Amino acid sequence: MNKRSRFILILIVLAICALFLKPSVTWYFGTEPETQKIALSSLETIKNVSEKKAADAVDALVAKAKADPAAVLEENEAFVVKAAKKAYKAAKKDVPSPMTAGDVLTAFSSRNELENIYEENFRNTYLKAKDNYTSSVKLGLDLSGGMNIIVKADLDVALDKQRENGDVPDAANFKKVAMTQAVDTLTSSIDKFGLTSPVIRQQGEDQIYIEIPGQADGESVNSIVQGKGSLNFRLVDEQATNAVNMYYAVNGARAFNDDGSLADPSVVPADCEVFGNYYKDSYGIDTRYSLDADPRTKGYGQPYIAVKKAIALDGNHVKAATISRNQTTGETEVNFSLDSEGAQIFAEFTGAHVNERLAIVNDGKIKSAANIRQAITGGNVSLTGGFSIEEAQNIQKVLQTTYLEVPLRVESQQIVGASLGQQAIHQGIMALCVGLGLVLVFMIAYYLGAGFYAVVAQFLNMYIMFSVLSAFNLTLTLSSIAGMILTVGMSVDANVIIFERIKEELALGKSRAAAISSGFDNAFWAIMDSNITTFIAALFLSQLGTGSIQGFAVSLAIGVCSSVFTALVISRLMFDFNTEFVGRNKISIGWGVKQ
Fold this sequence. Notes:
Helix content: 55-70%
Number of helices: 17
Low-confidence stretches: none
Number of strands: 16
Radius of gyration: 32 Å
């Protein structure tokens, strides 16, 4: 590889690393502690905080406009000014300049419209911070404190249950889909519970690893893991639905008791019960439809739906659920199949209730209410209703929760105190800094100018390592720091081999350029052999080991690759730069080296 290609390669690698490292730098150094705290909370909490802050911000703006209508907004409210200008243009009015507090209030037809703009800004801020955290290097429980849970999924039991309902052509694919659904269900349940930004991922074939930073109640988490949801189909009572929504429109929150029951039970017939009608909002959480929302928005609809108490079809009869697009109408459809008993029940029921609505009730929430267009026979059902892809996927997941019911049990649970984590962070960072510092001081003291190249290579080595950790959303643990400390020594060892080879070439009377070229060439395979064997060992440890062993192995494997790159590519470019562009004829590479 020529020098220009090597230089371009280094620039590309460093630029890619900067992109990988950006979320971590933004999260740990560019995000305010208050924003971090809110971003790490559940989506429900983020929504509540955003709504409250939006209401407070509008109150402050109204107060400012009353005190001085000509007051100019702050720089951090530029988004409101931008929205106001857009509103003026849409209304074909002259845009005021400068935009004052009074002008902003005039631009919008209602307070709700202005609150939505503020809420969107707060929501985007917190969700973006949450995304940065998700894409950043995370501190393990031994550094941050919290709870570690390993959950075992009994896939064989789930497979046997599915085979009772029908043939399973691909058992391996069924287990894969079942595990994905189990992880999704746990993620939704734990986040809904309000726990702080949990890490939930599949580990191996049938285990789920859950990591919850901070304080968490072990019993509550266990109840979530082992809890089961319910799903069934019920007939919608349109007259009762209209009555309950009119009652709600008049009475608001007073229409229901604290336990969710109607304050006036006579509003609906005795054979009906009322459930909230939900959709996935911009926060990604279940939100009840609203009578007050703009009819053009997703949130407009019936907040409550009254359904018959009698269950038309239990969700246990569902065998599979898929998404497709109707070739004739182009509509997105949710298709699901039923077992033989469910097919017969459904055919009889739909035949008797054509042109009525059938609701999917999941854990006390209405997730869909579609019209029955005709009797549905054969056990293959298609739900249509102008669904977007996202809405169809949500309904598919709701259906999957019943037939992909995977028994879960907690295999291990560990709690680490936050104070111990802070002490571990301090000790680990101190060990890394002291070790790195002593090595670098020795390199400069012993190898002089060439030692400085090794120092630069070491800092770039650490930079690349942290970038890779961030790119793959890996967790930084105490054992990972140990792997990094070992990598520092190994990386310096590669530089020592190169420098000693160069010194041998200089002793033979070669010029600077020839000694550098021969030194790197002769050192290449010695460095590669030692690092390849270390990488193979680290690879096996990362695959076969668990916990701290795996963390050590992963950081060691990353360090091996980055140290080879910095020693053979970056160090070589620094030597060549001083030779060809600076024009140096001698090398500062140690005491008593004659040239």
